[in-house]
Queue: 4 jobs
Job 1
Amino acid sequence: MTVSKQTEFKPITRSFFEKEWTERFDVFYQTTIDGEKKFVKFAEYDPKDYSHLNAILDERQNEAFYIRETDLYKYYRFNILKRLLLELAQDKPPAREAFQRVYPVATRILQDHLEIPTSDEFLALLDELPLVLSESLDPENLRFYELFAITLKEDTIHAHCVNVGMYCLCLARELGMSRKDREEIFRGGLLADIGKKFIPMEVLFKKDALTEEDRQTIRRHTAFGKKKLNEQRRYSKTVLRMAGEHHENFDGTGYPLKLAGNEIDTAARICKIMDVFNALTSHRPYREVMSPLQALTLMKEKMGEQFDSKLLTAFIQYAGKS
């Protein structure tokens, strides 16, 4: 079977098949027939019997593989997310368990959006997760050490995004923000670094020292992210400003606009704190991982320069609660 609508197909990596899939889907490869690029179905992924497909993949190690984006979207929407949301509605678990259940789903969706890559509409799959987690915090906030234990500390964009989003959400709860505001700050934290999708991976994950050109390239992710989110016409000003301003410094030395103090959106100031904290407590090839205490101690030294001192103090107090 051949299909020629190239925009419907998204490239997938070998690691894509190692996820905890529960449904079958068709796998395609690209070829040229009569001078036209076409996609040919050559196998079906069956989670109950991966051995046959695995053998084929071993034989075609240097070949690119594809999946229909519609299949991928339907899989998440009508299998993974539907099941997750139904279970959460029925069980009404405490906040820690709700976060534990949502975390792998959110990271998986963002990973596929960033790596495959999918269309911007794919991000709509995340829409209901902020509501679910914000509701879970109504009775009582999740203690920080429990939240920190849930998050992955790996050097990946998708894990960083979800970590920042969850940290923003819980600090917003600690600050007494409304459920609606908590939802938006979680959504903004999830998507603040989405512009890194448009930065070359060899620059983002460069192991050698960054050049000035590299740094300028990476800094463009704030503008890219805000622009792409704005184009979708479905995100609030809070989300857009978090994407565009989460690298502004409180003293006006940040980027891209060198905003200072209250010129920076409050949610973006919170996101700045969480972005730095998560970077310091996650694995990086160029330095040792810091403990939360080490990270907060270092950040406190920059209070008033990079960070809003009141918000950072609130985060330090929240993180210190037993």
Note: The chain has two domains: 2-68, 92-320.
Job 2
Amino acid sequence: MNKLAQLDQKYVWHPFTQMRDWLRREPIVIASGKGAVLRDVKGREFLDANSSIWTNLHGHQHPKINTAITRQLKIISHSSALGFANEPASLLAERLVKIAANGSQMPDSNGHRPPKFISKTKTANPSLEKVFFSDDGSTALEVALKLAYEFTRRTRGAKTKPRLLSLDGAYHGDTIGAVSLGHIDLFHKAYGGMLFSTDKVMSPYCYRCPFNRAKPERNDARKYRKCLWECVGLVEKKFAAQKKKGNPYAAFVFEPLMQGAAGMIPQPSGWLGQVTEIARHHGALLIADEVMTGFGRTGITCHVDDKTIAQITKNPAAAKLFATQRVGVTPDFLCVAKGLTGGYLPMAATLTTRRVFDAFLGEYEEFKTFFHGHSFTGNQLGAAASLASLEILQTKQSVLQRARLQKWMHEELQTLWTLPQVGDIRQVGLVAGIELVKDWRTREPFALRERAGIRVCEAMARRGVLTRPVGNVIVLMPPYCTTKTQLQKIAAALREAVKAVF
């Protein structure tokens, strides 16, 4: 066994990993990376099929980000944001606010619009004007949660006990507040005694929806479902019931377009716009968790073809960077992390409105300050990397490459329908979840003890492709620099792995 692998097994405790399993085999020790390729200490090459856990947007060793970090290292890497400002963080805050304000969207309808459960008068979107920096996705959500909680108390009365609503299967991070927002027993049940109570409402999981009367087909379940939008009706009922109790929900927390750790659950067209309007109608703040979905990850539009690419070529600015922009929704809190620095450094941001900001203004002795912060908040090195990443994202070259990659992904994913263990293929932009089942005709799931997803990913690794499953769902989320040939290799490795395992 390699010496570094020995040291790892002797000293390191890995996240979300059963260490007994880990200690049974020699781990892959990553030594270097370039573009979409990772290399281990034994010289083997692997394609990074999940962007190093959903973070690395542009590929490893991108020259522009490398240059930006190197330049900043020669000036200063970090100074405190408690009482001091700095140049890169100020510029980054301005850039994020301007990008968030660019809210018009590409045509995105594929039919199946839900019925209107409330007034046809659409609530006006707020304007995101302030940025609070933190360290990662969990802390970005923690910031939004605390701000929403205290803002509600200051606007509804100090005796108010704000309640929050999130989706079934939600995962919003690992800090105590973020865990309280989550509803995945596998992750959260162990900490139940430490958490505060939040409510949940049905997630629009079309493939396993109890209201979907459609029989299984070889297609994305969103496209052949038969229902009456009961999931939207349940959201309306939940808000109405809480309002009758005299304490309307303070905030509605959601991942837009695709729930990540829940199992890559995509939202059917029309769902997000409708449920956020319901939340607005009932006076709830909107907290959008775009930690995974942000910075172009949900793609250009719901479907990309040659016509779409031609449109983008003429007007690359039409490609929005946030999932909420895809449906014309501006939340009260926009939480970003992961890809903010292009996957180089841990950094996060929570964007919010002037209305929220103003509620925390007062004299020093009034103690209306937002008492929350992090040692590395707004650090210069992370901000410099983020500015470079955003500059890359807004180039015509990057926009066109993302559009092409989305199209290639769709084409390659269609080849997986021949596998009887593939029950559903869910793609939103440059994110895909392939749900493995015992038989696609019955949708019967594999038991967790069968480790179906893990075994398939292990078989993919033996074929030179690295990714990590969410239960029985294989996740594909390649860096934006991935070529068509590399994507074909990823799909081929998955096909071969499924055949080998089953």
Note: Residues 137-156 form the longest helix (20 residues).
Job 3
Amino acid sequence: MIPFSPPRMDQKIIDEVIDTLKSGWITTGPKTKRFEEELTKYAGHKATLCTSSGSAGLELMLRWFGVGEGDEVILPAYTYTATGNVVAHCGAKPVFVDVGTDFNISVEAIEKAITKRTKVIMPVDLAGFPCDYDEINALVRRKEIMDKFNPRTKEQKTLGRILVLSDAAHSLGAIYKGKKTGNLTDITVYSFHAVKNLTTAEGGAVCLNLPKPFDNADIYKYLRIKSLHGQTKDAFTKTKAGAWRYDVIEPGYKFNMTDIAAAMGLVELERYDSDMLVRRKQIFDKYAREFSKYDWAEIPVYETADKKSSYHVFLIRIKNVDEQQRDEVIQRITEKEVAVNVHFIPLPMMTYYKSLGNDISDYPVSYDNFSRVISLPVYYNLTDKQVMTVVGAVVGSMIHQDIKSQENFG
């Protein structure tokens, strides 16, 4: 069986984790701090806070910005549930908008959805392909859009406009107009979950890139406190002689990363551009070459003049099928011992979000993308031979599919 996305666990990672275990420091400590510093250097933003998950990072920043009851946060209908759930956790309303054929949020749809209650826009770099950040950043700075903004908190008044909080769970290492994600808008959040390109098993990071007069270094210091129960000193700081006394300045959260997780991240980040992304691009290119031979296959856009993906998920779409036919193809592929997936079921199709009055018929591009998409295996140790096995399984499963252009399936 070819699995969908197993993490890379080689000897370098094992050795670094063992070193951490032997150090006697396994929770938040020196390696977490070093990982934060290396991530800041890597993408070129202003400061990085590592967290227990990408979801924790998103929620932390919504709460820092004062998002709460009566507020609205605009996000794509086509995303993973974490993007919507963190908004709901804060008591705010998730406002879904449609996406484009590249799976990313429509800037035109964002503009139509902005109201006086809008506090945050959350673009999602689906599959690792960056959103249109110049257009989104320009939109929130337009005078008529800024005039709609109704700030309540100190942070909102200081920014004076809608915050752009990028969900870059898939896009570490992606490039937009020469800059890496993390450095493209106000705040960016990475995920290092087990299936991500760079994994720490569980984990995430907040990339601070706020404009003046914000002091990103000071915000980082405050967020460290907020992410650890509002406690003014973490356990590592308290180990210093006479430093046991601390204060609690607010009822914060338990969102900190451990040194065990950071140890894994440090190994992977050091070789990420030169090794991990190189191999993932090779796999993307091979899929694209092979499937371009079949006119039923819609190849995802993963490179343009301005954008380069992180090659996280290869989203092939089948032309002229409905959702049920796509599901039948997936079943046949699985029977050939190849694991595939679907990224994602749009949130307006989920019971909770439907109960809020959302209807998938209002997001036709999102539904069309979802109904025809199959996510193919992409991971570091996937061999060229296995890639061809995946291609063969997909093509072989399509031969029996009763849809248009069947004569071209061979």
Note: The chain has two domains: 11-270, 272-408.
Job 4
Amino acid sequence: MKPDQLQPALAELDSLGLRRRRRVLDGAQGARVTVDGRDYLSFSSNDYLGLANHPVIAAAARAAAERCGVGAGAAHLLTGHHRLHHDLETELAAFVGLPSALLFSTGYMASLGVIPALLDRHGEVFEDRLNHASLVDGAVLSRARLTRYPHLDLDWLDRKLGESTARTKLIATDTVFSMDGDLAPLPELLELAEKHDAWLYVDDAHGFGVLGEAGGGALSSSRLTPHPSLIYLATLGKAAGVAGAFVAGSQELVEWLVNRARTYIYTTAQPPLLAAATSASLKLIAAETWRRERLGELITRLKAGAADLPWPLMASDTPIQPLLVGGNLEALRLADGLRERGILIPAIRPPTVPQGEARLRISLSAAHSAEDIEQLLSALRELA
């Protein structure tokens, strides 16, 4: 696009209800926030367990900053791999029940590193149609053939895997689909991976900390055990309340990624204080089971109360509760009406979701109360 084409293109986004604008958060993340100078009840973060502002995690970060400074100062393969990083990788592997783990700066960088490290133009990546953009971009960057299968259609996937003549095959899927809130059938996908000699790469960004008895994520809730073909990704900026991501799997896989994942090799390591904060978060996730219990209660209350609304909640048993509106401008108007009433929920529009399926993405947190849910439902009924 040429420079003189930018302004007309932005104007077109405005006319279609597709232009995004940033809002400025003052203070800490939580169920109650101050955004653009106004106080809101927020259902718009991924802080599912209410840990982003936990004093124990903040104290761990402060203590590490005093001891280790702030910046890592170098890439992991130079002198940036701190003892705190190293110990956290051991903790994370044990937390999800896999042999080894590797820290990345973000989940996006993890997928951009992992998939091209394992596949080239002789490979083929099979992705659920509703996968997160990072998985799609990782496949494109690898130069492998990209085949996208209809959402959760395992028969279609089985057939295409059988037809493929690729040298290396990889199935990639979200565990909790970020805009719909539904779950991938991981045991069945692993069976397909075994059957067709393929990798299974699972992105548990929205399941880690939330699913499983101790918050161990989708592998725990699906009762999957370590498997040579399994690659597990989780992010640490959602339920864990910190920042970053990790990939876990076999020791051989992690060693290969250390040597071949470009987004790991060619970037400065995360500040060690974040590793200390994440370690503190893991202990809270495992010990404070009431956070997941409260989430379950809030999900049940929201579903029951929304049954009489003109906009249906999509089928989800996770903290992601999408309210399907339809048109882009209609979704924006509903979000604006809630904001006028002091409630913040984002309107999700194409290309993030399909045309005609714009929605409000209600994100629940253990920091919410039953009264917060009733306040939201009352505002929605008024707008209806």
Note: Residues 22-49+289-383 form a domain with the Aspartate Aminotransferase, domain 1 fold (CATH 3.90.1150.10).
